[in-house]
From TrEMBL:
The keyword Acyltransferase applies. Keywords: Acyltransferase, Transferase. SUPFAM superfamilies: Acyl-CoA N-acyltransferases (Nat). The keyword ATP-binding does not apply. GO terms for molecular function: acyltransferase activity. This is GNAT family N-acetyltransferase. It comes from Comamonas guangdongensis. The lineage of its organism: Bacteria, Pseudomonadati, Pseudomonadota, Betaproteobacteria, Burkholderiales. Transmembrane segments: none annotated.
């Protein structure tokens, strides 16, 4: 039995369902909304590479180290983007959240906060994780701010850690949240969502 089993999570009009090839057209359209693949510090596929992107994610699920979700508007069924658990380590009950990107028209809405609330609640409440981690490019300042808004703590920077799509070598900023920090972070996320609704 896999540590992360297939599950659909939903709240506040946002649905996370296991990524599949059926989501290819919707995900390609989401990537095209804002030409996200042109952003140097992300891993968004070009629309014609969407199938390969999904196949790579599905291989990660099969191997047990990644579980990707499609982020969907629950009312319309429109694909908004994707997010994943990755670097899954069952022995120490740790997952990371990443490979997250949304159509430009979805950015700066309640969607990311709602999706992260669902993933964190599932990780700490259902999977019994002791820690949830995040990592991002040292130049992806928007991502760093978004992770910090979730209540995650900065662990440090791994220098010369990974290749970007343009061949340059990036430093990786690491964050984490421990299970004991989750109740306060959850209260803050719910507060932010309530403020957004008003």
């Amino acid at each position: 039995m896999a540590f992360v089993e297939p599950v659909t999570l939903r709240d506040r009009g946002v649905r996370l369902e296991p990524l599949s090839l059926e989501h290819e057209a919707g995900l390609a359209a989401a990537a095209a909304d804002g030409e996200l693949w042109k952003i140097r510090v992300t891993s968004v596929p070009e629309p014609q590479e969407t199938r390969s992107y999904i196949e790579t994610a599905l291989l990660g699920r099969e191997q047990g180290h990644r579980f990707a979700f499609t982020v969907i508007d629950d009312d319309s069924g429109k694909v908004l983007g994707t997010t994943s658990y990755h670097d899954i380590v069952p022995a120490i009950r740790r997952v990371e959240i990443g490979y997250t990107w949304y159509a430009k028209s979805t950015q700066r809405t309640h969607v990311n906060t709602s999706a992260k609330l669902l993933l964190l609640a599932h990780a700490f409440g259902t999977l019994g994780c002791h820690v949830v981690g995040w990592r991002t490019d040292n130049f992806n300042f928007a991502s760093q701010r978004a992770i910090e808004r979730l209540g995650a703590k900065k662990d440090g920077v791994i220098r010369g850690h990974a290749l970007r799509r343009d061949g340059t070598i990036r430093d990786t900023v690491m964050y984490s949240m421990r299970s004991g920090e989750w109740p306060e972070a959850r209260a803050q996320l719910l507060y932010l969502l309530e403020q957004h609704a008003t």
